[in-house]
Amino acid sequence: MIVDDSPIARAVLSRMLSAHKDFEIVALAGNAGEALDALKSVRVDIVLLDVEMPGTSGLQALPEILKRGRGARVLIVSSICEDGAEATVKALALGAADTLPKPGTGTFAGRFSEVLAERLRRIGRVSAGQAAGAGASAADLPEVTLRAMPDTSLGCLALGASTGGLHALGEFLKSLPSKLGGPILVTQHLPDVFMPFFARQIAAAAGREARVVDEGMRLEPEQIFIARGDAHLCLAREGRSVHVTLSRDPASSGCLPSVDSMFWSVGEVYGRHGLGVVFSGMGRDGLVGSARLVDSGGAVLVQNQETSAVWGMPRAVAEAGLASAVLSPADLARRVAARAQGVPWK
Hints:
InterPro entries: CheB-like (IPR008248), CheB_C (IPR035909), CheY-like_superfamily (IPR011006), Sig_transdc_resp-reg_Me-estase (IPR000673), Sig_transdc_resp-reg_receiver (IPR001789). By secondary structure, the chain is of the alpha/beta class.
């Protein structure tokens, strides 16, 4: 379903997707109210949603669209500018699966059509289990061998996420206890212009100070340090203090910033006191870094398939036998809390 107040945008987007045999446009809506009415009778896999519309905005309607969509994913289309960035980050925090920069006037052509199709394929179809509200079916879940969790104190918590990860991060962070004993690092795949808004969303969800990192920034316990959109978040130790170093060296995953680079650095600096968590995302970013973190004596947890918008990054780590737990974001937070407090996990 395409939801956009511009008849021209709806027509052009429909024509673009109709050129791909694996897509079917089942509904068009000119505003949020029409979209919500359509979802009463039409089943969809993906809702392509404009943010700024007359009346109820796409942002205001998003929670109800997700509820009525019965497992449908939402792709937000927004211009990459400061206002668009803020709205898009809010949408991701509310549960949108992904975003796509909206081309300017006259640029709905050429490569955008292929990018749009690729992004929709990445989000994928709704499974029968998800449509019924039960998550993925048991047949879709792979066999996973879990590793033992170290019983050492928690020195640093590193969180990695991509597509669908911002909402999961919010659920995780708001469920953490106020005291962990170490800093929290975050690498989320987003454009650099989004990061100030992302930091505000993270701070609000976590109830902690959250900052986008700069070179040389010193890590402090209980604070959140967020990777820039144009550099890897790496670490260096000087005596008892640890500070941020920024790197733009190519990562094995091809991502910038990369979860691999962050996890690798946490393993080097914190060893068995380092703990990583991999949330929803496409691809395998985090796999190489997880292996290094585990080899250094640390541990990695991953989000489960049932709650992930895209179970790519978590799946790669889980199927490699590197995860100590595969859980929902809230349960992952409880697992981290148990580790930080030195109590057995139940």
